[in-house]
Write a structure and sequence with these properties.
The complex is a heterodimer.
Chain A (H helix, E strand, L loop, with lengths): L5 H24 L8 H40 L6 H39 L2 H7 L4 H40 L3 H11 L2 H27 L4 H34 L4
Helix pairs in contact in A: 1-5, 1-7, 2-3, 2-5, 3-5, 3-6, 3-7, 3-8, 5-6, 5-7, 7-8
Chain B lengths: L20 E12 L2 E12 L3 E5 L6 H8 L7 E6 L2 E2 L5 H8 L2 E4 L11 H12 L4 H14 L15 H13 L5 E5 L7 H16 L4 E5 L3 H8 L1 E4 L4 E4 L10 E7 L2 E6 L1 H6 L3 H7 L1
Parallel strand pairs in B: 3-8, 3-11, 6-7, 7-8
Antiparallel strand pairs in B: 1-2, 1-4, 4-5, 9-10, 11-12
Helix pairs in contact in B: 3-4, 3-5, 4-5, 6-7
The chains are: A mainly alpha, B alpha/beta.
Bound molecules: adenosine-5'-diphosphate and magnesium ion (MG).
Adenosine-5'-diphosphate binds next to α1 of chain B.
Chain lengths: ~260, ~280
């Protein structure tokens, strides 16, 4: 194997970040330029939203149940089992709903986008599109970004609700907490800040999933092997970025809202 | 085959066509990962002319076509296409210029998520507010030109390699572009299908007077084109009468080690004494 100097590697990485920023920026700027591809957006929304629904339902339910199961034990020791609704609610809405949904959709759609666009690159379909006078960023990337942001937002809400529902099942059937009391406390604990935080995150995560997936797709090189590599890298990179951005937004918003 | 909508003479007369170049490469160089692929090449494609580009695999033939479309930028040199300098243009400006150029990619590059109809109509559907019904007529016309009307509802994956190539041609010609770029249109095809495609290219040259660059490994195809014309009466490609050999606008260009070692017509090629070229054409 050839030895590459560290400066060369650094240069490459910086260039990659630069290319990614250009792609991400243009995908947003294209929103304000004609033509807008509504049909493509709808198709993507269907693919991302409806396609991800089963897995989001499943993970939402089980994470909520899990959360309830785990906290119930601790709360019981302090004799404050009645707080379980609040715990599940805050945990789901502020943190677990967004992150679990984000990671699931990243695994499913970031890779899907990378492999789809990557195949289009290596079979020269992207070049063909440019040759036919159409901007692939407008036709392929922007609709994916818009649809992912939009759909992840709603998928996260669904996940939150199902998490709460999963938690309620555990609380009422295993720990004999009153069903009505659970939902009341779950609802009442939620403050404006929690909801904002819980709904801002999917917007950011959706943007990360689509732009990272598309970026690795369009920069795929070297045949089918390159597409495979791009696919894995897209999942890894988008998941890591989601975790990182999650931490930063949580910290940042807590500082802004001066949390208790 | 469907009759083309424009009426023209039986055979094109090359000597009278205007000599203004539609594509002009001026000292163009490009390197990939430190390896020089094109080393200061210059050539011109005249209006109405079809120029065949030869060279071994990896000699930069496809790169020339991509440079002409502005799909990649050269490291040095200037490329004029239809009077505009594509090396200086931004991607957005290039989209307008590319509407006047049709390209047939080496592996067809059909959109595999779209049907044949949507592939062929792509340009029309992208260009403006046209309905599916409005594009139906040009799509049928374009597909009948390549004799593939029956495939209109199929997906590219259901077609054979030769059919895909012909659909790619139909997609490239639907707007009757001023320039056509063919990348190895007969590569890897059986002789019968190749002949069909050679006929289509000759028809574009003689009936529609389209200027084109044609990348090919098969010298035989290009010789056939230089020795034939498209007869509109019989709707067939016919061999030129003996005295008229090479009297069609057909040029040859041979690449070697990043340089152009030959650029001329079939007579000049036959008269060429260069050993490499003699070897190549024998
Ligand atoms: N986008 C690219 N990145 C890196 N190398 C390339 C690229 N395009 C072409 N090359 C290299 O340039 C050379 C010429 O390629 P090409 O023009 O496709 O040759 P051909 O004459 O067979 O069509 C090849 O060695 C190829 O590996
Ligand atoms: Mg090639």
């Amino acid at each position: 194997m050839e030895l590459i100097s560290p400066t060369e590697i650094a240069k490459e990485k910086i260039e990659a970040v630069q290319d990614f920023s250009v792609l991400a920026g243009r995908s947003v700027a294209n929103l304000f330029r004609y033509p807008r591809y509504f049909a493509d957006m709808m198709q993507q929304a269907d693919l991302i939203g409806v396609g991800s629904l089963p897995i989001v339902v499943l993970t939402g339910l089980s994470i909520g149940a899990e959360l309830a199961l785990n906290s119930a034990n601790t709360l019981q020791r302090f004799g404050s089992l009645s707080l379980i609704g609040q715990l599940v609610s805050v945990g789901m809405v502020r943190e677990l709903g967004p992150i679990i949904t984000g990671l699931m959709v990243a695994g499913r759609n970031s890779s899907g986008m990378a492999s789809e666009l990557g195949s289009m690159v290596v079979t020269e379909q992207i070049d063909a599109m440019r040759a036919l006078g159409t901007d692939p960023l407008k036709k392929l990337v922007t609709p994916r970004v818009v649809s992912t942001v939009f759909m992840l937002f709603f998928l996260t809400i669904i996940s939150d609700l199902l998490g709460l529902f999963g938690g309620s099942l555990i609380s009422t059937f295993l720990f004999r907490v009153d069903w009505r009391q659970y939902w009341n406390s779950a609802y009442q604990i939620l403050m404006f800040q929690d909801v904002i935080m819980g709904l801002l995150k999917p917007v950011l995560f959706g943007f990360i999933i689509a732009t990272v997936g598309c970026y690795y797709g369009v920069s795929a090189r070297g045949g089918t092997q390159g597409v495979g590599r791009a696919t894995t890298q897209a999942v890894v990179a988008s998941s890591v970025l989601i975790l990182l951005v999650d931490l930063l937004t949580t910290k940042f918003l807590m500082a802004i809202f001066s949390y208790r | 085959m469907a009759a083309p909508p424009i009426t023209v003479d039986e055979r094109s007369v090359p000597t009278e066509t205007s000599r203004s170049p539609v594509i002009a490469f001026d000292n163009v160089s490009i390197a990939f990962e430190g390896r020089t692929v094109l080393d200061g090449i210059s050539f011109q494609l005249n209006k109405g002319e079809t120029k065949a580009i030869f060279g071994v695999a990896g000699s930069g033939k496809s790169t020339i076509l991509k440079l002409a479309l502005g799909l990649m930028k050269p490291d040095a040199g200037r490329i004029q296409v239809l009077g505009e300098d594509v090396t200086q243009m931004r991607e957005e400006e290039l989209f307008d210029l590319r509407r006047k150029i049709g390209m047939v990619f080496q592996e067809s590059a059909l959109f595999d998520s779209l049907t044949v109809r949507e592939n062929v109509a792509f340009r029309l559907l992208e260009e403006g507010d046209v309905t599916e019904e409005e594009v139906e007529k040009p799509v049928r016309e374009s597909l009948s030109f390549v004799e593939l009307e029956k495939t209109v509802d199929m997906f590219p994956s259901e077609l054979s390699g030769g059919m895909r190539r012909r659909v790619a041609i139909a997609r490239a010609i639907i707007t009757h572009p001023e320039i056509l770029l063919y990348d190895s249109p007969t590569g890897g095809l059986d002789p019968v299908t190749s002949t069909t495609i050679v006929q289509l290219i000759v028809k574009q040259r003689d009936v529609y007077k389209t200027s084109s660059l044609l990348v090919t490994h098969r010298l035989q195809d290009a010789f056939t084109m230089a020795a034939s014309y498209f007869d509109r009466k019989t709707n067939q490609m016919q061999p030129l009468p003996p005295g008229m050999r090479g009297e069609v606008p057909m040029g040859f260009l041979i690449l070697r080690d990043g340089k152009i070692i030959f650029d001329g017509d079939v007579h000049e090629l036959a008269a060429c004494r260069d050993e490499y070229i003699r070897e190549y054409i024998s």
